[in-house]
Design goal:
By secondary structure, the protein is of the alpha+beta class. It has 2 domains: 246 residues, Bira Bifunctional Protein, Domain 2 (BirA Bifunctional Protein, domain 2, 2-Layer Sandwich), CATH 3.30.930; 89 residues, Rossmann fold (3-Layer(aba) Sandwich). It contains 15 helices and 16 strands. The strands form 3 sheets. The chain has an 8-stranded mixed beta sheet with strand order 1-5-6-11-10-9-7-8. The protein has a 5-stranded mixed beta sheet with strand order 13-12-14-15-16, sandwiched between helices. Strands 2-4-3 form a 3-stranded antiparallel beta sheet. A hairpin with a 5-residue loop joins β3 and β4. α2 packs across α4 and α5 packs parallel to α9. The structure holds adenosine monophosphate.
Length: 418
């Protein structure tokens, strides 16, 4: 037997309609905020992610599913969505339609990580990006959108952690300073951090290793390197959030794994998750559009994990069952089957949900199956019905049965009070 690949999951019917629920809340939420959906291909040129995410990140160095196709092109299954969305934004010149573009997505992503609860190799993210505004209100719009989305789903114990990583100018100065600070500790650092030290010492702040966390406690803080504009941008973000009564904590160590962030970074965590407690992450990335070949365009966005949301919601959403079908149709003789299919089609065109018995069951077995499926009505066509151009309608709840003529059946069913 061939099993699914490690770190991938099937979403079976008793799970998929929980997805539908979240998806429908998400689509209407995004519509309320004026965001339009964008769908990008499942794979892109590898170069897009190398340039867009950063060559020394875990995603690019260790986690991408990449291959060379038959035409010699280097391709990668998308491990994140900001770079593809930015690519599409530039390629289709979306800036020419509107000075501000609000886009959202819901998509499958692929990263070869070590699977554990809340961490898989194929997973789904929803997210939003707003292009064209450098102002703090754009940052707040993104944060508020996702924060309120979680609130609307009934989350109480969520924490918004906020930071600013400053502009490029400030990060350059900070990087040098951090480099000098870390240099004496080099021998105490892990191999990964040693590598990061050479390429991008800021990423060492992301460490999960205890003794490195201790070292970092005394490291210089990025806020001491902010430009005047960085300070006022961050202050405005905080003050608008306070005005909106959205609580947050400042986490100066939160630099986020990806290189393209500038100024605001944020994360929302939930105590309802286990060790992998991040529900979503995001921030401002004013340089990415230019880095990927577009005109300089400020942008801010977030990405949120669907599976983690569903894990955290498990306790909140009652175990929902799929909507039952309304009508169950059974033909008692083989020659009735064409009529069964015809009636089913007619009913569906008229808006009813219908299933037919495909196993040529006996009447008793078919009605038992109709009950199991929670059908409200069964329609039975036997020899007599077929001969008289009629059907037998059974209301499942009361057991009441009525013989009616085939030509009247839609009117009859519509008039029933179920
Ligand atoms: P990131 O793109 O790494 O910033 O992740 C954004 C969000 O996606 C996280 O907060 C998680 O909710 C989710 N996520 C990231 N990686 C995985 C994964 N391997 N499996 C499941 N969810 C993930």
């Amino acid at each position: 037997m061939i099993r699914s690949v490690k770190g991938t999951h099937d979403i079976l019917p008793d799970e998929s309609h929980r997805w539908h629920k979240i998806e429908s809340v998400l689509h209407s939420f995004m519509q309320q905020y004026g965001y339009n959906e964008i769908r990008t291909p499942a794979f892109e040129k590898t170069e897009l992610f190398a340039r867009g995410i950063g060559t020394e990140t875990d995603i690019v160095t260790k986690e991408m599913y990449s291959w060379i196709d038959q035409g010699g092109e280097k391709l990668t299954l998308k491990p994140e969505l900001t770079a593809p969305v930015v690519r599409a934004y530039i390629q289709h010149n979306l800036a020419s339609n509107s000075a501000v573009n609000r886009l959202y997505y819901l998509d499958a992503l692929f990263r070869r990580e070590r699977p554990q609860k809340g961490r898989t190799r194929q997973f789904h993210q929803f997210g939003a990006e707003v292009f064209g505004s450098e102002h703090p209100e754009a940052d707040v719009e993104i944060i508020t959108l996702v924060y309120n989305f979680y609130k609307s789903l009934g989350f109480k114990k969520i924490t918004l952690r906020l930071n600013s990583v400053g502009s490029v100018e400030c990060r350059e100065k900070y990087r040098k300073e951090l480099y000098s600070f870390l240099k004496p500790f080099l021998t105490d650092l892990s191999e990964t951090s040693k590598l990061r030290f050479q390429k991008n010492p800021l990423r060492i702040l992301d460490t999960k290793i205890e003794n490195e966390k201790e070292i970092i406690k005394n490291a210089p803080k990025i806020n001491n390197f902010f430009t005047k504009d960085d300070v006022s941008h961050f202050e405005s973000v905080k003050s608008i959030l306070r005005e909106l009564e959205i609580p947050f904590t400042i986490d100066p160590q939160m630099v986020r794994g990806l290189d393209y962030y500038s100024r605001t970074t944020f994360e929302i965590t939930s105590k309802e998750l286990g060790a992998q407690d991040a529900l979503c992450g995001g921030g401002r990335y004013d340089n990415l559009v230019e880095m990927l070949g577009g005109k300089p365009t400020p942008a801010v966005g977030f990405a949120a994990g669907m599976e983690r949301l569903l894990i955290a919601l498990k306790t909140k959403l009652s175990k929902s069952t799929p909507e039952p079908v309304q009508i169950y149709i059974v033909g008692l003789i083989p020659s009735a089957q064409a009529q069964v299919q015809k009636i089913a089609s007619e009913l569906r065109v008229n808006g009813w949900s219908v299933i037919t018995d495909l196993l040529r069951r006996s009447l008793k077995a078919a009605l038992r199956d109709a009950n199991r499926k929670n059908a409200k009505i069964s329609i039975i066509i036997g020899e007599e019905e077929l001969a008289k151009n009629g059907i037998l309608v059974k209301i499942m709840k009361s057991g009441e049965q009525t013989k009616i003529l085939r030509k009247n059946f839609i009117n009859h069913l519509t008039s029933l009070d179920l």
